[in-house]
Amino acid sequence: MQRRTLIATGAAALFAPRLALAAWPEREITVIVQYGAGGSTDVSTRAIAAEAEKILGVPVQIVNRPGGQGTVGVQQIAAARPDGYTIGTTGLAGLAIAPHMLDVAYGFESFTFLPAFARYLYGIAVRAESPHRTIQDLVNAAKARRTTFGATGAPNNIGMFDIARATGARFQFVPFGSGAEAVTATLGGHVDAVIQNPPEMLPALESGRLRLLASASAGRWKEYPEVPTLREQGVDVVVDSMIGFIGPKGIPQDRVERLTSAFLEAAQKPALAEILGRFGMVPSILQPQEFERVAREAHDRFGPQLREAGLARRR
Amino acid sequence: MIDGLLHGFAVLSSWQNLSLCLLGAFLGTVVGVLPGLGPATTIALLLPITLKLDPTGAIILLAGIYYGVAYGGTLTSVLMRIPGEASSVVTCIDGYEMARKGRAGAALGIAAIGSFFASTVGILGVMLLSPPLAELVIAFGPWEYAALMLAGLSLIAFFAASGLAKAGLMALLGLMLGSVGLDPISGTPRFTFGIPELVDGINITPLALGLFGLSELLYLALVKDTKAEILRPPTSLLGFLPSKQEAKRSVAPVLRGSVLGFLVGLLPGGGAVLASFLSYAVEKRLAKRPEEFGRGAVEGVAGPEAANNAGTAGAFIPLLTLGIPSNAVTALLLGALLIHGVQPGPMILERQPEIYWGVIASMYLGNVILLVLNLPLVGLFVRALEIPRRYMAAAILAICVIGVYSTNLATFDVLLAAGFGLLGFALRRGGFDLGPLVLAYVLGPTFERSLRQGLLISDGELGILLERPIALGFILAAIATLAAAVLLRNRARVAD
């Protein structure tokens, strides 16, 4: 009798891990957002979490951990228990830009990469009174005289530095605290141009006070299909940033796969595309390895460029 | 326009929207009363919940919290010298002194009525003047901001009872505290001493609660028990009504505060905090008896409390007509609108008039609700002064600590507040005024950022100022203010 129980228990023990695997996740998953509620990072994370919930069959809850320019939240992801129940979202800001500006306690080796699901759109615009109609006009003006542009920081400003390098023009970067302030300064003619995302530019574009010269992204804006990209105008520059999931290093491989497939499926839902569009983003799937590669490349490329512009920590 | 407003009230008249307006005003009052917990935190917390509402209802609720806060913030400032909100910091100075003279009810009553008047002025301004004022916002570039901030800083000369040198020292300390965090141009940290919590700068909550609230505790501990029971509640239930003389002295400050606050609220980076400080400085400058400031001058409550409400309303103009948020709270409101697929901006009147007019109508109603909510409560709250100070002190400590901790859930902030409590105590013992310190801390970062932006734009040339009449005007005003302060002081010295 005792022996039988023992065998039964042993058999159960043998099967238990497999059952647990199939059942994972068993409880709610926490997603750390590195900024406060209401911004594009927060809203897009909530939107995909709402879809992923249905696929994973457990609640996916959002925890906002703002602070340290977004590095506090990323640090907390790195320090979380690697059981797959605590992950987070971030983009290039946390992985490829902040490490050049601040002392952060994490590096690429601190994370398990999961998929990225959306890209930010960028555009370059001037005010309606400006004579410039194309990006070439702006570049020519910048070759002839001092030309300023407003932006919040990287990667927007790096895009303009890239254009300057590719064309031999010179642009003076004027940093603003928010995209809205950069747009306002452009409308008032205080700076010559602005490079930002759609949400802060669309109101002024639609009222005709601001003119979009180019989409600085790989594709055109859906609101302005007639405005070509930089590449289409002969300037080989693309400003790119994305948002994706990361977790602490050491999450078991089967859980990584489960999360990856769930988020990849969620990323294709039409409801997500709708909400992303309102915040100037487009759905765009990057497999975990690709997300990591793009982020690492951006990190290595931004460092020297930011230092050259006097915008980063000195080594 | 009348059609629009009627349409707005029609939108508002559904049960759901009416109750959301009431709920928003009520929550705003509560959040305003609770130190530390501010409108930004509350709106961020509620944002995900509002996803279930329709866009108009969501904005009515969130906007109610925003403008309700400017009402509630006064209470603890007057009764306990704890600023309930950043926009009521300056009210601690004279509001609390009024309470010590047994005029707490009058201070709160005037604040509530002044707030109502100023909000109404602000909403009318939003309704009638939105398009031309939006142009003013655009005309303000970095140089204009830098010059405006300079003019604001020059008012410090009139701020302090303690003399120019002491006020100047405090202003310098405030500027230093404001410069902790990220360099506004290069984005790299400075004066953070390797402490990650300081990367985002020193938050105004631990600073204000420490300097004013915690330092008052130490002060109370120092004086004898009998003397500490100085706060006297009014004798009758109607004691919250201001006397005839107090009411008369408040009329002009409320009017000035309403206009000034509204204009400052329009500007990005402006808003209610700046409005209240500028109004205080202006009232002190214009007062017939400036020596009463800091000792319970009713003008020092009436002006700033009107200004912070008008400033709150003013911030709706760039938000609704340009899609430009002028402070952290309106940025969250913008986020809320975007989540619901509403793009604020010049086109909103054509595309979603029900939202534009619904919000404006709800602001009218919300302000009436707030007045009805706040005025009778004053009589009730003032009874709290009957609690012996030795028990009250424990409550003040608890409120301050919880308030500071709840903002960012950071123990570091509590330690920071404790440090500021000690600093505030030491400074008050040394006869320094805290007003110039906080004003410089508030204005300094915007001044630095704008000045450096301006210099980047002009390539280091100052001659550009001659082509910018608005900026030049502010700079001349700043010079005139400083000169007047020095001259008046010298004359006073000769007269002595």
Task: Describe how the helices and strands are arranged.
The complex is a heterodimer of chains A (315) and B (496).
Chain A: H1 2-23, E1 29-33, H2 40-56, E2 60-64, H3 71-79, E3 86-91, H4 92-101, E4 111-120, E5 123-127, H5 135-144, E6 147-151, H6 156-167, E7 171-175, H7 179-187, E8 193-196, H8 198-206, E9 210-215, E10 242-248, H9 253-266, H10 270-278, E11 281-286, H11 288-308
Parallel strand pairs in A: 1-2, 1-3, 6-7, 6-8
Antiparallel strand pairs in A: 3-10, 4-10, 4-11, 5-8, 5-9
Helix pairs in contact in A: 2-9, 2-10, 4-11
Chain B: H1 2-12, H2 15-33, H3 39-50, H4 55-72, H5 74-80, H6 91-100, H7 104-139, H8 142-154, H9 156-159, H10 164-178, E1 181-182, E2 189-190, H11 204-222, H12 225-228, H13 244-266, H14 272-286, H15 299-314, H16 316-322, H17 328-339, H18 348-351, H19 353-382, H20 389-408, H21 411-429, H22 435-458, H23 469-495
Antiparallel strand pairs in B: 1-2
Written overview of the protein:
Chain A: Keywords: Signal. Chain A: It comes from Plastoroseomonas hellenica. Chain A: Residues 1-22 form the signal peptide. Chain A: This is Tripartite tricarboxylate transporter substrate binding protein. The complex is a heterodimer of chains A (315) and B (496). With 315 residues, chain A is an alpha/beta fold. In chain A, 45% of the residues lie in helices and 20% in strands. Chain A has helices at residues 2-23, 40-56, 71-79, 92-101, 135-144, 156-167, 179-187, 198-206, 253-266, 270-278, 288-308, and strands at 29-33, 60-64, 86-91, 111-120, 123-127, 147-151, 171-175, 193-196, 210-215, 242-248, 281-286. In chain A, the strands form 2 sheets. Chain A has a 6-stranded mixed β-sheet with strand order 2-1-3-10-4-11. A 5-stranded mixed β-sheet of chain A has the order 7-6-8-5-9, sandwiched between helices. In chain A, helix 4 packs parallel to helix 11. Chain B has 496 residues and is an all-alpha fold. Chain B has one domain (2-495). Helix content of chain B is 74%, strand content 1%. In chain B, a hairpin with a 6-residue loop joins strand 1 and strand 2. Chains A and B meet through helix 2, strand 7, helix 7 and helix 8 of A and helix 3, helix 7, helix 17 and helix 22 of B.
